[in-house]
Protein 1
Amino acid sequence: MSAVVETIEAMERPPLSMGSRLEGELLEVSMGPQHPSTHGVFRMNVALDGEIVRKLKPVFGYLHRNHEKIGENTSYLGSMPYTDRLDYFCSMTNNWAYALSVEKLAGIEVPERAEYLRVILAELTRLQNHASLLGFLLSDMGAWGTPLMYAFREREKILDLFESLAGSRMMCDYMRFGGCRVDASEEWLAGAQQIVDRFPKFLDEFEELILGNEIVIGRTQNVGKLSAELAVNAGITGPMLRACGVNYDIRKIDCYGFYPRFKFRIPLGEHGDTYDRLMMRALEMRESVEILKQAFAQIAPGPIVNPKVKVRAFRPPVGEAYGRIEGPKGELGFYLISDGAPNPYRYRVRPPSFINLTVLEDLCLGHTVADVMVILGSIDIVMGEVDR
Amino acid sequence: MESLGEIKSRIEAAVFGAKIEIMQNGSPSQQHSLLIDNEHAVAVARFLRVDPALYLDFCSNVTGVDWLDRVVKKTTKVKKIVDGQEKEVVETSEEKIPGYLEAVYHLYSITHKHGPVIIRMRTSDRADGTHLPSLTPVWRSAEFQEREIFDLYGIRFGGHPDLRRILMWDEFENYPMRKDYHEPDDYEWEPTPHDDVMEKAKVHYPPRPEMDGAEKITSQP
């Protein structure tokens, strides 16, 4: 009998190493790159105290293919389809940013109809990017399947529009220097208008389903708070910056394209937490719908490409230019240096989601591992753009 | 926003000893830039960041540029006396411009909604002197982007909090965005135990005896 009691005592005695662990020894965990909620091949080295994050270092480069070097070795137009692969959710806005920079570099004017088409396609891109982001974010929170499928149902309609116009759903390669590649027919515009008109209905439904949900509120409010000063200093752009209450939208500041012709508002957040970032996307979709409605009313027939632009042997004058647009994820810029050759001397992409990750550690400190996934989801990264 | 010339004179008045040069940009974009000297770069950046009229609080884009050693050929017509007669002779002279690496910063102001003001810094050469001061203490957005420049161009930023390779793997040795970079034939190759074993095996065992010559058919004349 007594021997049995002794063994039980020995088993219940904690091992010697437990003492220091209870006092807060940090455990280093590598999250990713093969994890569904890291949105691609993103990895974080996390130092954990229990379940609380005490340190976080992002690790990049699993999808690095030196996009910029390839851009320097290709002709100006040759890089256009390659920009699709940066942020593969938003190939239209990538194309536009690149076309805008080359147009600045070479001083090219864009005809009116092409500008309208660009605005329409960029706003459609914003709609589908934000819709699918919300779906993914809820998927990360554990609302597995249903919200994502609702979002994808709407995204699918917009991708079908892209396919019927540009020939490809995601790799559109649609913009050209001084215009667009193919004209949109009246039927296409009517179909697009129909989809846009029905979009607010989906938004009402989606917002009712999700944004008032108790679990969503519990998991996002006061999680990953970002102050406005830090956001500005760390170069955060896009919905993530505006969620902190900073009124900075390049569509209003730079007045590129035909955005000054449209009436729309800039939604602003108040707290800079994950819930505000989530709301920002929902509210921006409503403003995009407003812009689209105005664009469909204003667009008139006309040429879609500037005939003066050389397609072959296109050589911009010597110099440099930095062009930027308000992409769905933030400020997307291209910096180009021309030495008069048919390929750029320097081709640089300013990837918004890469720079938005600068503050990831600051947002996650003190939160649990499960919150890290939600915060990362609300930053909205695409690894094709982060790693380039 | 005030012109670059005004900004230049104001910086020179505020930061003692700073040397600023305006770099003209011939492209239709008309985005001229300021070349600032490395010694006073951080002080100049602080001034641009804090000055109430400029208040460039948002550093949008940071990037590197590689300029190789260049030889510029100049042809000049010189009057010379040849065989007692004055003639115009075309003389060519070569001027060597040493290469350098450049870091370019695009600055905007979110408060005043103006920009860009472009500043650039140059290293003294492309080999040993690739040092520049880091502007990350002024604008945190430069943190990852300067790391990227270090990774791809090899500019060492003094004062950067965490200067490591970011996109390439840590063991990578060269700087792939430099203009004279040649990529290896096989990235994956590395000396494996297998190769060592093969070498040892060659020493250990005698070479295989020649067969009846069937395998040499192709090499026969």
Protein 2
Amino acid sequence: MLKIEKINFKYGDKKVLNDFSMEVREGERVALKGSSGCGKSTLLKVIAGLEKPYSGKLFFDGKDVTTLSPHKREFGYVFQDFALFPHLSVKNNILFGISGYKSSERKVLLKKYTEMLHIDSLLDHYPNELSGGQKQRVAIARTLITSPKIILMDEVFSALDEGLKEKVRLEILEVLKELKITTILVTHDSRDAEVLCDKIIEMYPI
Amino acid sequence: MKIFKIEDGIIKFFLLALILAFIVLPISDSIPLLFTPSTPYLDVLVEKGILWEYLLNTLELVFKVGLFSILLGFTSSYIVTMYDFKFKSIFKVLLTLPLAFPVYVGAYTYSSIFYTNKWLGNIFTGKLFMEGSVFIYGIFLYPYVYLACRSYLKDNLVEYIEASKTLGKSSLETFIKVIFPLSWPAVLGSTLFVIFETLSDFAVVEYYGVGTISKVITDSWMGLGQKDTAAKASMILLFVLTVIIFSEKILRRKKRYEGISDRKIKPEKPSGLATIMIYLFLSIVVSLSFILPTYEMLVFTIAKSSYIASIDLLGIASNTLITLFIAIFIIIVISSIFASIVNQLKRGKKFFSTIAVMGYSIPSLILALAVYIFTLSLDNFIYDLFHIEWLVLMNTRTALVIALVIKFISVAFSNYSNSLAKISPNVFHASTMLRHNFLGTFFKVNLPLLKKPTKFVFIILFIDLIKELTLTYTLRPFNFKTLSTEIYRYAGNEMIEVAAIPSLVIVGICSLMIIYLELGGKNVKNRKDKL
């Protein structure tokens, strides 16, 4: 489904990814694990199209998407800091990516994902009124509602406290399994990788 | 644990009261004049509908100036933040340089440019641009919006833009749905500054013949000597200002969206057509706001270079500089003490900060009138006491310095407050624990920490004060000449070419200072913190 071929990436003179290659099959949940500075978040951004590699190729379903802009890739991205739009309510944050859909369709999808992630009571709240766990669920719902071909998750559990982490992990796992969605998770925490993913790729700084 | 000794509280209370009295007392002294009976001049203005017309003109002026500044300032800041193109760094500096122009200098210079370039005059001196005044305020004040938005866009939006793009939105959709709504509070806040500056000036509207409330104040005070009429008209201007401030608060809904991380936006290379549009837009803006008027002034100065000897430039410059340095010194001393006290307060921080920055939002004419009334009553008191035959305070620039301090203390106070707020409170607690009282801590900890911001505070104050006309013109001692008053005098006597000489001195010095601030990494965006 997703094939990465010899991707190279540099920040200024500092090489972050060196001839990195990997493959992800449909429905697979892959963890990119490693210490900070090993380039795992950069790789996720390259996959999303937010960063451009200086060499290498990225194929999705056999099609070269290396230079395709992020909004045309139809991948979903859950940011480490969730990046919820502070000027929009929870409801409008979640609907942001499907504003072109019919109203009735949007209603159905909104109900489905907010119930699935147990945030249906928060729709009129604003991001600054939410806890870390609630923000995370909203960010995931906002991404899932667009029916992405792949969901990319960048250290999404790092902002949560230890007590909450395990519960949220299991809940998210349930959702991902139910939707059978291809997932790439970036994490430095072995437990995240073990619980959520069926394949773990270790990355090391260059 | 008790952090401060009792005498600390007394010292702080005494200093706070003294500073507050210095700021508030001169302003409050004009209040009784508001309750005197109406004057014949005011009655005529009301009966003939002139006052109403002037009020509408004032509202139209600030609305249009605000819109024009947003158009120029926000667009320029968006371009330089989001795109990477050749000569960008030069454009970035050039876009800030209109701040070096006092608006009245811009008005006088453009009157000649409009005369020789009729097509330009036809565009910008019509009803839409209210005889040219909207153009002048907008083109020379938009850098307030540009600087605030440039800093906001660069530092706060990267995550939201990325999120929008990964949610399938194009650049245009991202701009409409994310960038502009998030930047809106910063846009409004900085536009408010443009409006303050517009309301504080009287020379531009006077020169272009636009009747505003400022005209009523100047005519009644300086023309007819009717302080009470001027005070009543001031109330109308203050009412306009209050409406504007509240509108801004309602529109902004008290929001300001901060970025999530310290990542900065990575500018993109624009497409071919976009590159042409960018160069065209920026070239027009910098040409109209800096290059063209500077060129015009240079031509005038060369043409009238024989006048330089007769102007007594040295005497005028020394008058300007001495007044300026006295005011800056007092501002720096007062604001550093005030900011240090307010920084340590557990309650009332917001209240005292508001008092300190209040002066900046009061239109200069109103402030001048208030200080004039205050110092006049003090002079009368001194006469009663010592029978001194002349007005001690009015004739020794005391009134002028008091007004300058009240007006511009916010610049220094905001910078010092921000600097102190970034330092852990434990630093000050440590000093107290090491047996230093407030004054000891102030001299040994606060002052050394405030050394760095003082350099920038000094430059920003210098730029603001050297350009200042309204307070200087109205409160200067008799026959006291400064660069700004001489520009006003020459321009008023239809000697615009001669006025270009002192104008060029101001613009030259301010330009160098702004370039230094821009290249020195600390831009003038801190001006927005005055509020």
Protein 3
Amino acid sequence: MTVISRDDVQHLAQLSSLQLADDEVSNLVTDINDILGYIEQLGQLDTTGVDPTYQVTDLENIGRSDAVIDYGVSREQLLALAPAQQDNQVKVPKVL
Amino acid sequence: MTTISECIRQTSSARARVEAAFEKAAAHEHYHALLSLTKERALERADAVDRGDITGRLAGVPFVVKDNFLAFGAPTTAASKMLENFTAPLQATAVERLEAEGAICIGKANLDAFAHGGSTENSAFGPTLNAVDTTKVAGGSSGGSAVVTALDIVSFALGTDTGGSIRQPASFNGVVGVKPTYGTVSRYGVVAMASSTDTIGCFAHTTADAALIMDIMAGQDERDMTTLPNFFAPTTNVTAGQKIGLIRESMSDDVDSEVRARMNEYVAKLRAAGHTIDEVDLPMLTHSLAMYYIIVPAEVSSNLARYDGIRYGYRAEGVQTLAELYGKTRDQGFVTENKRRIMIGSFVLSSGYFDAYYLQAQKARTLLINAYNELFKNYDVLLSPVSPTPAFGLGENTADPIKMYLADIMTVPPSLAGLPAISVPAGVTAAGLPVGVQLIGPRKSDAALLALAGSLEDQA
């Protein structure tokens, strides 16, 4: 059985772009190990020669005409959603 | 309980209907079923209906949407701090189609944050209380939508169902809940959770109302390439002498005895109506939850990557580096269950574990689909409880994620296979808690399932 350590959880948090507090990490070590312990039962299932299913619609290669669609949303409206804007651009803190 | 046609008949003006809905909402505020009201816009639209400027099959009928549908007139929060102040610049196709028929959205319903959960206790803004017993959970993740319907604040409400999020709260509150065939309704403008099983459906008081709503929402949308050509045709014709399979694994001793008793009564009613019921085996049922909690977190981790604090939503203050900006924004903007799922998703997709977890789950999913296909060679409909128990107590399962996940064990298998499944009320326990029965059919049999359930409704 896979056992996830505190370091593993920190690594997963990093992969997930989550900067966790210390007490959160402790709780997640327990939770994630419990969840993995449960989902590992699938390993017992014989899936030799079985193809994976990625979607259930039976639809394939759905396209549409290559035309501009008016979504009724302006550049100003979209920019206004950003936490900060300046000069028609999304403003971010200086990080370099 | 006010059906859609009663709602239209009872009150002469749309304004009076909408105002009555707001009054009921205010009287039931302590259930915390609604996160926001769209008063100004709803009243404007009501007046337009009364002037005759807006017409349609739902002219002036108030409804509520789960707060993960983008809609005008109120923020779209997904019950998260991440989107607490997010005001949608566009509306979901489902909302647009209902509005085109004259329906009036009066508010946004509470949910588990980003629809992650089965009790609405994961809402960043506090839980919704069960409509029948306020010491119990509403179910989830569409708990608010189920409760506003059960409390008769509105005749119908919209929800999303990825693994049971409409069916389970419908059963916990005693209303009809529809999770359609995957691809029936466009998901454009709805906050994505797990793209391979996310569906849009509804809550209503009757199967006929649910069929009307699904009929209006169903159909292709070039803004959601997974939508199927419209196949949904409401009907009241019930094929005589249907063959129905009661899933044996769903009636084990682990399932609450009163839930099984209500199931057996429902089976007796189906028999009395001339249908044949056999017990059938679906051994894959027991593995489905493990599949689900690999596949869905994997998709969640991808879909929630967009919340980075840059373009919209919450942004953490006082950060020094880019990694810190992302990391703190996401840590503060998500609830614990969001983080659990994102991290499990990152784990099952990471190199070294991908084959053993994610790929194995997608292969197991094929076996589940094959098992359903075999059963549908001989049976028209499959039957199971919606949930192994009636509504559980507030706080009862919050400390144990696995226990919370187990409440979904009956509802996730049809989701993984893309099948239509509906939850219909099947009586109550001795304590008065509602029990729901789940009817599952082959893909695109949605209308037939509703008709079958509808044929038993009058005797309920």
Protein 4
Amino acid sequence: MKLEKLIPWLAGGLAIVGAAIAVIPPSPVRGFDTDAFGRLPVLEGGRVKPVDSVSRNALLMIRGQQSFKYDPDGDGPQKGRTISSDEWILDVLFRPELADQYPVFVINDPEVLGLMGMRQSSNRYFAFSALVPHLEEIQKQAMAAHQVDAKQRTRFQSAIANLFERVYLYYRLKNTVQLAGSPGLAAEVASAGTPGAQQRHQAIEELAYFRPIPPAAGTTGDNWLNMGQALRGAASGQPGDALSGWARLSVAYMAQDPSSFGRAVADVTAADAAARPDSIDLAGHEIVFNRAQPFYAGMVVYVLAMLALFASWLWKPKILQPAAYGLLVAGAVIHTLGLVSRVLLQGRPPVTNLYSSAVFVGWGAVVLGVILERIYKKGFATAVAAASGFASLIVAHHLSGDGDTMEMMRAVLDSNFWLATHVVTITIGYSGTFLAGAMAIGYTLRKHLVRKPDPGTTKALMGMTYGVICFALFFSFLGTVLGGIWADQSWGRFWGWDPKENGALLIVLWNAIILHARWGGFVRERGIMAMAIFGNVITSLSWFGVNMLGVGLHSYGFMDSAFWALTGFIASQLAIMAFTLLPAQFWKTANAHGKQQEPSPEPGH
Amino acid sequence: MTRIENRPLSALLDVLTSLKLTIVCMAALMVLVVACTLAQVHLGTWGAVNVYMRSWLVWWDVPGTVLSVPVFPGGALAGAVLAVNLIAAQLKRLELSWKKAGLWIVHAGLILLVIGEFVTGMFQQDMQLAFEEGHTANYVEYPRENELAVIDVTDPAWDEVYGIPETLLARADEVQVPGTPITLKVKRFLKNADLAMRTPNDAPAIATAGVGTSIRVAELPPVTTDDRPNATAAFVEPVAGGRSYGTWLVSALLAAPQQFVYEGRTYQLAMRSRRVYLPYSLTLKDFTHDVYPGTEIPKNFSSLVHLNNPAKGESRDVLIYMNQPLRYDGKAFYQASFGKGDTLSILQVVSNPGWLLPYISCVLVTVGLLVHFAITMRRSMRRRAAAAEAHS
């Protein structure tokens, strides 16, 4: 008995320990302390972040991954060594001739490949050096594509414009600290006042991707300097500590001298700490968050929870069902830690953009599922919650390809109070609607797959779905009205029939219709379940569909490639609804669950 | 006899209070909301809202004919029926008891929300105020409406303005400018028109005076999207004291006003956005706009405005920024846009007598739901306690 009580704790604890291993700092690469380098704070995209975040996001944008395998002898990537984003950015900054050989540009579009005279093959990754002969053509085609409105572009035009943006990002990175192909930053500092230096400073200032030099101590604000500005300052006076530190760092890495590199990184860190003490802590925290990848870890744990639960239906349910619950809770803990870190790092409520809304929708569904499982203890809520958490984190993962997921807030959205109230409540409403839909899908699968009738579970499922719909109606209504009040505060009207507002209203109306139809006795078990699944369709349209319309004040979250994914999702939901509505004789449990036995809903309010 | 007479009435009452009607209305609203959202791509927000939400019926123009047939209830009808249904059902079904107090409050809040949207639809005025740094404005403009302003500028210290709304120009042949001896003959009115310099091949100009004599006017279809206003134009002939002062072209695209003199008084003609004058004035002292360092993402906008109301002896500075409007004298001024290298600020000006209703409604619904939740909780806890007692 005692052992059984320990099972969920054991399973959950193991999962959390497994996720925590990722946080351990990596060992030095060829003797270079890339970890310390990755911790250096810089300003990019309007906020201070560690170099590690810049390198991860840049590599994510260019290659679609945060690290890659490379084998200089050309024996294929299988034999190569894994190159982390920190090592990659060091080479991009200081040894561009080497970095140009790394296969970091992912190109999938056959027409873009054809433009460069290449055939589509299993190798989708290309080095910058392979693109160099075609740069002029890429730029020409991309400029032509840029004349066309982003929504009207053909597949080729989107792909070539995207490739050019990535090439340009790479080119900017190469010229951020020193001009690629120049003798280096130290030489630049030494010759700061000489003729011709000014043009080079100007070039760096225009191209620099991030700003590594902190503002002077004792000042306020985020006026970090790029290398060009810092060099111009050095031309008229003494180079600051940070600039000289970076110069020594450049010399050491170019000369491949690990020990002086380590000292130079320590000098830059000290200079940054003197000027902006909190930037060091902030960067340190963010690097832990980057390494932990809590949402990726959470995704894995949710899959494990699902697998454990599926297995429990076949074998040793007494052990596996609690284990699955333990894993679900562990996933929820990791997910929560990830959300909390984002909130602390960004100084913002959890939902600030489409990416974070996906993370939060999943979190809400999982937490609700954990509570429901504690009440009903049927294992069913575990499966549905783990599946919802996994699905939403997958969606979030696909939304993160645009780079930094902690981008700055546009002025119109810059209000922590309203982000915390309206955005969070409405997103909880999405969570509830999706969870109800997921439960209804689970109900349908059960009816069609499980032979053994189990009226107790069916009743519990009905109760859960009904409760979750009530919950969803409350939060989506409250969130919608709060949104109206925010709109009244900032745009002068409570309700403007903006597409996003309309989407929220649709969710409220649909949930209200489900509940009223149930109270009136117009629909029963199957009807309510089918309506709950249709809630998925409405919520997905309101969440992503309206962004594709491209009109209105809310259309800041536009994405072009998600259209087909959304269409596929809606088609799948409609298909499942058809199965839900099939009469009882088609069910596996048909014999025991005749129509007359279908529990009638509770009457009235 | 009486029973027979009552039957249709009670049948109507049954329909009005039925839950089915509630669901039908909500479903109709869903259809309308979807249609309205999709239509915004072509009609613009205001166009779509007027067709689907602020109308009693949705009309469909039968192609190839001038016929227009109603095909669906409009948002106003669905909303009104829903409100009546809510009230009727409330009175008939929900008994007046403490047990139902929460639901009473919730439904009262919902009814108020629907009423609020009706009040907004009927009474809300959307205006705009665009001014540059250092400039003072004592008026606000309707960005989607134009007027022909006849301005007596004889007194250098004071302009006397007579505004003729475009709707009047569109339907009248002759307009007597109130308060002046001038009558305007409307030769032609164009809701939206583009202007270009005349070439020798063009047909003779309608205008006989002013800059219009050298301009070619091409009629355009009226604008339906939200972001562009109509460039309304008209040819008018001022007549005073039995004498014609020529035919003038007035257009929203002509910046410089044109003028003529009658009996020592100078009158200007200008087609411009319809203005409403305020009993107070606003001066833009400073407009600021920051971006996050190293990005193009706007961090904030704000307008430092001096408010001067001599009648009330008020003279003070106000800072208007995102989410911080100035509410004054029944109007609310919001930071909406900017231009001209951060020296021009555009404020959105809204007057809506019902602006408070959604706030009250929101509070009512939230309180109602909490009350209902508390009552239900207490009941289920009592039940559990009773069950536990019976068990022991």
